[in-house]
Specification:
Elements lengths: L2 E3 L5 E2 L16 E5 L2 E5 L2 H7 L5 E4 L3 E4 L3 E3 L3 E4 L4 E5 L2 E6 L5 E5 L2 E11 L2 E5 L2 E11 L9 E5 L2 E4 L7 E4 L2 E2 L1
Parallel strand pairs: 1-4, 5-8, 6-9, 7-10, 8-11, 9-12, 10-12, 11-13, 12-14, 13-15, 14-16, 14-17, 15-18
Antiparallel strand pairs: 1-2, 3-4, 3-5
Length: 174
Amino acid sequence: PYINTSATGDVVLTHAELTNPDDDPNNVAYVMVGGEKVYYSSVRTALSQAPNGSTIVLLRDSSYTGHGTFTSKSLTLDGNGFTLTTSGGYAFDVCGAAGNTFTVKNLTVNSARFMYNEFSTVYIENCTINDSYGLVFSIALPDGVDANINIKDTTINLNTTNNEPFARTGNNVS
């Protein structure tokens, strides 16, 4: 069966009438769990509910308001060539723990603030980031704690009068 998870996390009826739930416009992303695709109606919900080690795959352009927060787990977000537009918070609020990783790839992100990262290692690959405030990567790290940011094949477009387009970048940026 196909499972659709609503923005509140409640399980919605399966979509048996669809030959391919990827085509349901209410499904914006999925995660493979136990060999089954679990569908989400919001990237924000997928970030918070996807199991540790999951890859979230976008099915279409999407948007949300508020922080895209997840805590103490490693995730990959494969944008699959689509665009994510966010407002009213960080597109990605990575409240991790030492040893966690977050990978964003194949995605265009339009946001006011791209990312807040605590402790995790972040990989940004093959993305376009359109940011109107500045890339806020790593803030409030205790001494001796790394939050590594690795950027590859990515275009960053800042539209900002902020004098700090990279507010504290942690200990390593490559």
